Amino acid sequence: MSVRVSVPRVGRRLASSPGMPRRAHPFAGPAAGATLRGLAWALLSCIAFGLSGTLAKGLMATGWSPLTTVSVRVGGAALLMGLPALWFMRHRLGVLRRHAGLIVGYGVIAVASTQLCYFLAVQTLPVAVALLIEYLAPIIIVGWLWARHGQRPGPLTVLGAVLAMTGLALVLGITGAVPVDLVGIGWALGAAVSLAGYFLLAAKPAPDLPPLVLVGVGMGVGTLTLLTIAALRVLPWQWSSAPVPMGPWVVSPLVPLTLLVLVTAVVAYTAGLFAARSLGSRVASFVSLVEVLAAVLFAWLFLAEVPGATQALGGVAILLGAIAVKVAETRSA
């Protein structure tokens, strides 16, 4: 059934009068379209990123080390994206030199550090717990903006930080309800700091540097960083050809490795960068909290990992705290 709304003639004359300003519809126009596209990119990135911990933990259960797993993931993405990006920029190398700091920072922090710390964390922590700790990144961003740019947090931001810290205490089992692995917690906190850097770097203005070039060349820098760590033997380098159990299936390790490269690297980073460019670091980091729900779902389906009641309550508190922080930042912006 359709409903017609008639507008009085006087209203139509007033609305069309050149002297009367027109009110823009909040969900119309180019800006709204860009926002919706940014949200779509952000959700796609969240789902793709949310699968990475489950795939990596399945491989590590059969003998793969975190460093080897993340190196294959990032190295495969570098081959698929980095080489075409360099070919595309072969006549514009000056752009790459001008943004060398951004590219190196993106490759080292956003690519290598974030995922290596996260994979090291899921080795000893449940996927959901490691990711919840990592998603303290919005709180870290607030602290960075306060310390670096003097943006003092308001009451709602402080409330969000308190909620997040309370939730962190519950998730980490400080109450004694769940066991605590200090090494895994340390790696997860490292992933949180790196993720905050990822959001800030991805939203940095670079209009003459195509986003796919930043991702592709950044993957190459990340690969070199990980291979340097392997060469220094700081972390073990191990792999296995044993089949990988994934829920009701047992598959070749090529299956999770392919998904790690194509879905959780190529798709996830590309979509995440487009989202950050469209939405900004604050909104993109807010929407990225959906990744926690995706990761919990994938871990339940393929690893039979279900958070306990205490951890679930702590997770809700962390998410509410992050939401409060992002709402406060959006209002101030």
UniProtKB/TrEMBL annotation:
Residues 37-172, 183-324 form the EamA domain. The keyword Membrane applies. Residues 1-22 are annotated as: Disordered. The chain crosses the membrane at residues 27-50, 70-88, 100-121, 127-146, 158-178, 184-201, 213-234, 254-276, 283-303, 309-328. One of its GO terms (cellular component) is membrane. Keywords: Membrane, Transmembrane, Transmembrane helix. InterPro entries: EamA_dom (IPR000620), EmrE-like (IPR037185). Belongs to the EamA transporter family. This is EamA domain-containing protein.
